[in-house]
Amino acid sequence: MSIGFAPAPQGAPATPVRRLAQIAAVFVAVAVAPVHLARAQDASTWLGKAAKAARELTYVGTIVYQHGPRVETSRLTHLYENGAEHEKLVNLDGPAREVIRSQGEVRCYYPDAKIVRVEPRTFRNVFPSLSPQQQQALAQFYEFRVGEVARVAGHEAQAIVFEPRDGLRYGHKFWVHRDTGLLLKARLINEKGEVVEQFAFTDIAIGVRVERDHVKPSWAGTPPDWQLKEGTAGDGVAQDTGWAVTRVPPGFVKITEGFRTLRGKRDPVAHIVFSDGLVAVSVFVESITGVPGQALGTMRQGGLNVYSMKVDDHFVTVLGEAPAATVRQIALSVARR
Amino acid sequence: MNEDLSRLMDGDLNETELDRVAGELRRPQALATWACYHAIGDSLRGCPYGSPGFANRFSAALAAEPTVLAPRPKLGTERPAARWAVAAAATVAAVGVVGWTAFSLSDAPGTAVAKAREAAAVTSAQVRPQMLPQDYVLVHQEYSPATALQGVQPYLRAVSVQGSDVRP
């Protein structure tokens, strides 16, 4: 399947709707048996409900994050108020690093290193409105089934499973709160059936009262002796970066392409994102002078695989929630257009 | 070079060094040192390396043996001494296979390099998360469907205390 698609005309805002339209256009040609379609609608309904619940409910809970042999615990507070989300995540183990996510930006505080990283939020989530074409694509590359009913964090949860139909992607198992649709547990599974990463609530209170103070950072502003690392938003316009990615697995479509400025780098960084509906893979290309001493090769954290390499005088990094071989294959196919 | 080989065995080389040392390993002398270090390691761990040429002689002898397609005698009818002989032969065979595998390394530089790469890859999987480019992770996360489903949870990858180091 071709992964190329016409970029948005220069100057047109790359709204989520526009992106969806682009993705839909790519999938028009995909033919799937009707039996898949019913399943696909089913899968899409579950995902849509989970995304809506994650966004529009107010909840407080403890999360256990497992990646490889490591286990970390953190506290999550999510407030939905007047149509806006406010979210705070604090590490309970080790240094009390925290993530504050609000409408406009994501801030990460690293008190151990005295660093604040700020990234603007430019993209809204896709699930409330998966197009029929996207649903079909999902069904074509994953076998969807509704699994068992289980107890998670003391709540009754329905398991739903996305099993990949090829070796190019991970399997997903989600446990969804039966009453609200909120994800209580999410697991990424490799081709050997091993869990590569898991996020799970061990306790959660849904629909409780949360004050605004509970979702504010523990530091007011940026403490004077801290470093502020601030990125800038993409220009919101799909741009041709001049880089081509030729070997993207089937089912992955380009959802954005453009330049971003990261942490005060001199030159903007090219960023291209592909998604198969369940995960995304990002391709970053920047001048080699921007990243002296950067490690090359494969890196990994839990379900996130990273592959970095030099292409001429540029540095290519591909990362995403896909197996290392898939990420590497994509990286090796990055070339100047 | 010898120190690099030693570090390679310990899985301490980074990707760039690995490429260089893997290239070096194509030289017979480096390969001999590599095999020698493994022999030392094996003997320290109590795995005897065998006499020089043993594997080749054993392989030749084994190949020359006729394959006997006789029905298996009933259990208990053979004499204990015969059972000991069978067990001893099996042990010798096992040692032979291990020995052959070790010796074949010096015949095939490609295999040695592949093995070295494999060893380093395993180590890199354990060590490399320290180097995760966090700025990239943060940018990526906003576009990931996982963020739509789980909110801020996947950002734990960027602030994980055990998994990632903070790079200025």
Plain-language structure description:
The complex is a heterodimer of chains A (337) and B (168). Chain A is built from 4 helices and 20 strands. With 337 residues, chain A is an alpha+beta fold. Chain A folds into 2 domains: 214 residues, outer membrane lipoprotein receptor (LolB), chain A, CATH 2.50.20.10; 105 residues, Phosphorylase Kinase, domain 1. A 12-stranded mixed β-sheet of chain A has the order 7-8-9-10-11-1-2-3-4-5-6-12. In chain A, strands 14-15-16-19-18-17 form a 6-stranded antiparallel β-sheet. In chain A, strands 13-20 form a two-stranded antiparallel ribbon. The two termini of chain A are 19 Å apart. The relative contact order of chain A is 0.15. Helices cover 67% and strands 0% of the residues of chain B. The C terminus of chain B is likely disordered. By secondary structure, chain B is an all-alpha fold. In chain B, helix 2 packs antiparallel against helix 6. The chains are: A alpha+beta (337), B mainly alpha (168). At the A-B interface, helix 2, strand 1, strand 2, strand 3 and strand 4 of A face helix 6, helix 7, helix 8 and helix 9 of B.
Question: What attributes characterize this protein structure?
Answer:
heterodimer; A: 337 residues; alpha+beta; outer membrane lipoprotein receptor (LolB), chain A; Phosphorylase Kinase, domain 1; 2 domains; 12-stranded mixed sheet; 20 strands; globular; B: mainly alpha; disordered C terminus
